[in-house]
Write a structure and sequence with these properties.
Helix content of chain A is 38%, strand content 18%. By secondary structure, chain A is of the alpha/beta class. Chain B contains 13 helices and five strands. A three-stranded antiparallel β-sheet of chain B has the order 2-3-4, sandwiched between helices. The chains are: A alpha/beta, B mainly alpha.
Chain lengths: 314, 268
């Protein structure tokens, strides 16, 4: 069973709840070994099927851990609106699993394309960026509100790694997300790796400024009270582009930014994500331990009573 | 159409329209005017991700088709299906149902004439894996001897489906998934063009497949359509006058295929 030092529901007063993404290679091992984790996260869509083994294994996981349901397919930014079918499946899953949090992305994937037999609705199965325009904000607010009304609870919306940038922009990404939270009452899910990937790609495109400094400014523009969860993951530098592939350990730069985020936002629940080339469970648990230690250090009071000063960002 | 819808249509069209088509070219032209340059590398990242997802999702649903076609050809097939029949839902487990018909109409696959039926069996297995749970109801079986069989029907396992084929589809699938029969035996049955029906169901949490007779196939298809036990039995007897329900039923119950009896839900 779990370690005596960390319970699921009551992490030590200064440490945030820390969880890992629970993926297929670790279904059995996690259930058998029940490592000390404050929650587990799954991709909601992987458990939409109403019956069978997947749903059964999630019920088992839920019996041992709080579950954070993280979606990748709601398409909250879609001008075509939310797919009623998708919302139905999510609602049933939420009703059964009673998740500790529900989240999806500030992205779109669903839309209408002209076809030989007339317009057809499609879903690109990706996290495509929306412009930071008033129109896109209005659409996302309406979609988020619709989801929250149906689920009868707030959801958290995650910032993206974006590989295209729309010309149409009335505001910054942080203004977009902050206003979204203010208008809908949704929370924000801050993916620190995504911020860093975007900053690295901006650097590759010749934008001035140091990536870490840009990320720190990004984090400083987000109201801490709105942040419900933090995500940490690895990325891959391909030379001409950096991809958020969730396929390696969290980089040192992202750990630095994580400590900065925790110092600013407080003990926000933190998730270690790993989706490509999933390593042994022990590696994820090791990353979770590092997150807990890093957060604890970032929250340690200084002699003056404040949290530890934010370290220099080289 | 408002500006946001135009932006989204341009990006979706660029990612999902058939490469080389006029629609794809129009979408790229539209997108170029809407995004900051340089954009080609970012767009390529999204395209590559889509193609990887397509292959991975399709392989999860169709492992036997993937083995029969081979790695590179399967990746090409997945890519083409992605563009010709793109996903419509945000759950990729729903995508891929168009593969059997796509294979049927693909002249490049004419040398594997059983492939489409194998795909039909695999899609049935894929759907059965996540079908709504249902448990056995032994207390309902006395209805078999107490009521008019025109007034009730059989309750089948989650995901029950039947595929009838002119090829040994059940043998091909089980040979690849469970090595039963061996691949050599399955190949021999293809050579002999041995027709088979495959029945698919879920026993507990495990999707299952087995060859079945054409009479059993007729019975199950009728029950799946909601027909009464009597009407379903008559369809089986029309195929094979010697079909013996009393002999078939105990095995079907033991294998978890028949869970019980139940009322008719629609007019037979």
């Amino acid at each position: 069973m779990k370690s005596a030092t960390v319970s699921h529901d009551a992490p030590s007063p200064r440490a945030p709840a820390v969880g890992i993404g629970w993926r297929h290679p670790h279904y059995a091992e996690l259930l058998e070994t029940q490592p000390a984790l404050d929650f587990i996260e799954v991709h909601s869509e992987n458990f939409f099927a109403p019956g069978g083994a997947a749903r059964a294994v999630l019920r088992e996981g839920r019996a041992s851990y709080p579950v954070s349901l993280h979606g990748v397919g709601l398409s909250l930014g879609s001008a075509s609106g939310i797919d009623e079918w998708h919302l139905d499946q999510l609602e049933r899953l939420v009703d059964e699993i009673d998740p500790v949090r529900i989240s999806d992305h500030a992205s779109f994937a669903r839309g209408v394309l002209p076809g030989a037999h007339g317009p057809a609705t499609v879903h690109a199965a990706d996290l495509l960026p929306v412009p930071f325009s008033r129109e896109a904000l209005d659409v996302m607010c309406a979609n988020v509100q619709r989801v929250q009304d149906r689920l009868r609870r707030p959801i958290a919306v995650e910032n993206l790694s974006a590989y295209l940038r729309w010309q149409d922009a009335d505001m910054s990404e942080t203004q977009f997300l902050t206003t979204l939270a203010q208008r809908t009452g949704c929370s924000l899910l801050v993916d620190v790796n995504n911020i860093y990937v975007n900053a690295l790609n901006a650097q590759l495109l010749g934008e001035p400024g140091a990536p870490l400094e840009a990320c720190r400014e990004w984090l400083d523009q987000i109201p801490g009270a709105a942040v419900a969860e933090i995500h940490l993951a690895g990325h891959i530098h391909c030379g001409d582009i950096v991809i958020d592939d969730h396929g390696s350990r969290v980089s040192e730069a992202v750990w630095t930014l994580y400590r900065h985020a925790i110092a600013r936002f407080g003990a926000v629940p933190t998730l270690i994500e790993w989706d490509t080339g999933v390593p042994p469970l022990s590696v994820l648990l090791d990353e979770a331990t590092r997150a807990r230690e890093g957060a604890t250090a970032a929250l340690r009071p200084t002699p003056s009573g404040a949290s530890a000063p934010v370290e220099a960002l080289a | 159409m408002n500006a946001l819808a135009q932006q989204q249509q341009a990006l979706l069209g660029t990612l999902l329209a058939l490469p080389g088509s006029a629609q794809a070219a129009d979408a790229v032209t539209a997108l170029r005017a809407l995004v900051h340059s340089p954009w080609a590398r970012g767009l390529a990242a999204y395209q590559a991700n889509g193609h990887e997802l397509a292959e991975r999702s399709l392989r999860a649903a169709y492992p036997v088709v993937a083995a029969l076609v081979g790695g590179d050809s399967f990746a090409t097939m997945a890519c083409e299906l992605w563009h010709r029949h793109p996903p419509v839902r945000g759950d990729l487990a729903c995508w891929g149902d168009a593969l059997p018909a796509f294979v049927d109409h693909n002249p490049q696959l004419a040398d594997v004439p059983y492939l489409a039926d194998v795909a039909r069996v695999e899609w049935a297995l894929h759907r059965a894996a996540g079908a709504p749970d249902a448990g056995a109801d032994p207390a309902s079986f006395p209805l078999l001897t107490q009521a008019d069989p025109a007034t009730f029907t059989l309750r089948l396992a989650p995901g029950t489906a039947v595929v009838t084929s002119d090829w040994p589809v059940a043998s091909l699938v089980t040979a690849h998934l469970y090595e039963d029969p061996s691949l050599a035996v399955a190949a021999g049955r293809v050579q002999a063009r041995a027709a088979e029906c495959a029945r698919v169901w879920r026993q507990g949490l495990r999707p299952r497949i087995a060859a079945c007779t054409r009479a059993e196939s007729a019975l199950l298809q009728a029950v799946v359509r909601g027909r009464s036990l009597l009407a379903s039995l008559n369809e089986a007897l029309a195929v094979d006058a010697g079909f013996d329900l009393g002999q078939w039923l105990p095995d079907a119950v033991t294998q978890g295929l028949v869970l019980g009896t139940g009322p008719l839900e629609s007019t037979p």
